[in-house]
Write a structure and sequence with these properties.
Layout: H1 5-15, H2 21-34, H3 41-51, H4 57-73, H5 77-94, H6 97-113, H7 117-134, H8 137-153, H9 157-173, H10 177-193, H11 200-213, H12 217-233, H13 237-254, H14 260-273, H15 277-294, H16 297-313, H17 317-435, H18 437-452, H19 459-491, E1 498-502, H20 503-513, H21 515-520, E2 524-529, E3 534-538, H22 539-555, E4 562-570, E5 573-580, H23 613-624, E6 628-634, E7 638-646
Parallel strand pairs: 2-4
Antiparallel strand pairs: 1-3, 4-5, 5-7, 6-7
Helix pairs in contact: 1-2, 2-3, 3-4, 4-5, 4-6, 5-6, 6-7, 6-8, 7-8, 8-9, 8-10, 9-10, 10-11, 10-12, 11-12, 12-13, 13-14, 14-15, 14-16, 15-16, 16-17, 17-19, 18-19, 19-23, 22-23
Length: 654
């Protein structure tokens, strides 16, 4: 909703001489009705166009351009796509290059939103040519920024950054704050796509500060949207939701109803990642409503896509199947639209090809003359080719000899690897035959008893047997999981893959992961971390180590017990402690925990025992990373495992 009285006064001034007296009276009547209050600008422009159908084409071109701009500004992109083409021909005939260039930019943006990047680029290139010739720098910067957006969509980030650099330079020279903000927003997209996240936050903070200074609500909304997407991409879902909600409030102030679709859809995706399926579904429903209101097949398809994932995660398979089927229907709709665009592109390509064929015919005569001149050179080239082939043949023979030698060395190395694999296999079979026998035997005993005496067993006894089955299945699951991770660790020869991540964030993620187990055993887990602790090491290794230690603490701590996760920096070292109030370990059993040779069944008296592979895997991984593990424990009082590692490791061989 905007006040367009000044705009309509200008329109009336331009075409008053071309209107009849009655028509001018009608236009004056429209203005008198809406004077002094906020009105629907698009509605006023439509009425003005209706009253001026008999006026000159140039004026109609201006009106259609303004109407398209109004629709674009309020997010009605399909409607804007209908009016821009109506403005182009009148503006081309009138020779109004500046306004025509702006119309090209608008049309290019609508095509970009529809995914027709080739045609979008063509319109933006036309606009760039016009503005360079006219030395209209502000508009040139706008065209360059729009072209950069198209190249981002085409994943050509190098070309996109080149255009954005020029656009930013122009905007700063012209003190064009709004285009500085827009360019910074687009630059942040490139850094997100290329993984250069360190540059994203400062750029978007600057963009928001500039937008606030000029009170550009739309600009701030876009900045918060991009910031939320960046945090989302980095896995910081709670922080991303905060930015999306900022965007929602700004869109609401600006009256951008359909833009809320993207807010709802993004928040739904974030809540899905946080496993808050109820909120994810609620926001997805809101996004679906807006997409259907606008009849936007691509967005409806995307909404069904996230709903399918949500219902599947909720195990509501009926609704999941319905969402999947609806998603498929909109895939067909999108395919039909894409087919129509392709047919139009083929038509344009055919016309272009006919022109090129005429040029080709003219060039053939010159080509024949060139070929005749080159024939005299070919004989000498043949002799050169023969010599080169002989040299290449000698090179190939030598290369094959060298390859044979390398192959022999490779076979020797593979034989050594095979021997190592056989040793690992023997260790695996020993573990399987010894440690997995007990839970499987429990399964057999309980199920056999239930099967033979089902009619004679009371409900209370059945419940006890089921509880035994649950304990046996959980034991088997834990043992199989550790067995798989250990065996993969033994076989794998991958190098460490260091990456930068926050230890505190990982600890919070693991706490959420084990929340259900903690609730079942009525246990409390507390995080005592001094603040963000950046680590540059193998994220997967650290996560596996911490998951095993926390799982053990939960397993060997009685109901209503407590677990602490502590982390701090000590010089160049990171120190992590996982303490519990569990059953504890006798000091004489410490040395048995980290070796496969010891019988883990002989350690302590807990009913929840496994293969002991988890701690073996932890020790091997932490030592591979150059760290250490130690423990302190007292029977019936609890255990503390302490990890020490440097904050940064280089890539090492496995």
């Amino acid at each position: 909703m905007r006040k367009l009285i000044p705009l309509l006064l200008l329109v009336v001034h331009h075409f008053a001489s071309a209107q009849t007296k009655d028509e001018r009276v009608k236009i004056d009547s429209i203005l008198s009705v809406y004077t002094g209050r906020s009105v629907d600008g698009k509605g006023l422009l439509q009425e003005a166009i209706t009253l001026s159908q008999q006026s000159d084409d140039y004026l109609l071109g201006q009106l259609y351009f303004k109407l398209a701009e109004e629709h674009l500004a309020t997010g009605a992109y399909d409607s804007a796509g209908k009016y821009y083409p109506l403005s182009l021909t009148p503006l081309e005939i009138a020779g109004d290059s500046t306004l025509l260039g702006e119309a090209y930019i608008g049309m290019g943006y609508v095509l970009y939103l529809k995914g027709d990047y080739t045609q979008s680029l063509n319109y933006n290139l036309k606009a760039e040519k016009i503005f360079r010739a006219a030395k209209a720098n502000k508009l040139l910067g706008r065209a360059l920024k729009r072209m950069a957006g198209v190249f981002i969509a085409m994943k050509d980030y190098g070309t996109s950054e080149k255009y954005l650099s020029e656009a930013l330079t122009i905007a700063e020279e012209e003190f064009d704050t709004i285009n500085i903000v827009r360019t910074l927003n687009t630059l942040s997209v490139i850094y997100d796509e290329t993984g250069d996240f360190k540059k994203v936050d400062p750029i978007l903070k600057r963009a928001i500060a500039l937008a606030e200074a000029i009170h550009c609500i739309r600009c701030m909304a876009i900045s918060y949207s991009q910031w939320g997407i960046s945090l989302h991409f980095r896995g910081q879902y709670k922080e991303a939701i905060g930015k999306y909600r900022k965007e929602y409030e700004l869109n609401k102030l600006e009256g951008l109803t359909f833009d809320q679709y993207f807010v709802y859809q993004n928040i739904a995706e974030a809540y899905f990642e946080l496993q808050n399926l109820t909120l994810a579904l609620a926001y997805s429903d809101s996004a679906m409503f807006l997409a259907k209101t606008e009849d936007a097949p691509q967005f409806i398809h995307d909404s069904y896509k996230i709903q399918y994932k949500i219902y599947k995660a909720k195990n509501d398979l009926g609704k999941a199947l319905t969402a999947l089927e609806m998603k498929g229907q909109y895939v067909d709709t999108l395919f039909s639209q894409e087919k129509a665009r392709m047919q139009e592109d083929m038509k344009v390509a055919y016309e272009t090809e006919k022109k090129e064929q005429l040029i080709t015919l003219l060039e053939k005569e010159n080509t024949i003359k060139v070929l005749e001149a080159e024939q005299s050179k070919q004989l000498r080239l043949y002799l050169i080719v023969v010599v080169v082939l002989l040299v290449l043949a000698a090179g190939v023979l030598f290369s094959r000899y060298r390859l044979k030698q390398r192959t022999a060395k490779l076979l020797d190395a593979k034989n050594i690897d095979l021997q190592n694999l056989n040793q690992v296999k023997d260790r695996l079979f020993a573990i399987i035959s010894h440690d997995l026998k007990s839970p499987l035997s429990s399964f057999h005993t309980v199920t056999s008893t239930l099967n033979q005496y089902y009619g004679q067993i009371s409900q209370a006894d059945i419940k006890k047997y089921l509880e035994k089955l649950e304990v046996a299945s959980k034991s088997l699951e834990d043992q199989m999981k550790n067995l798989l991770e250990w065996s993969l660790h033994q076989i794998s020869e991958r190098k460490l893959s260091p990456e930068v991540f926050d230890l505190k964030e990982m600890a919070e993620t693991l706490k959420n992961f084990f929340q259900l187990s903690l609730e079942v055993k009525r246990q409390n887990m507390y995080l005592e971390i001094e603040g963000p602790i950046p680590l540059e090491t193998d994220r997967e290794y650290v996560q596996t180590i911490l998951r095993n230690l926390i799982s053990n603490a939960i397993k060997f701590t009685p109901p209503e017990g407590t677990i602490w996760f502590r982390a701090k920096t000590a010089g160049a070292e990171i120190v992590i402690e996982i303490e519990d109030t569990g059953i504890g370990i006798a000091s004489e059993d410490f040395s048995k925990l980290f070796t496969l040779e010891a019988d883990k069944k002989s350690i302590g008296n807990s009913p929840e025992k496994g293969t002991g592979l988890g701690l073996v895997l932890v020790k091997e991984m932490i030592e591979k990373m150059g760290g250490t593990i130690s423990l302190a424990s007292e029977l019936n009082k609890g255990t503390t495992f302490t990890l020490k590692m440097t904050g940064k490791q280089q890539k090492q061989a496995a």
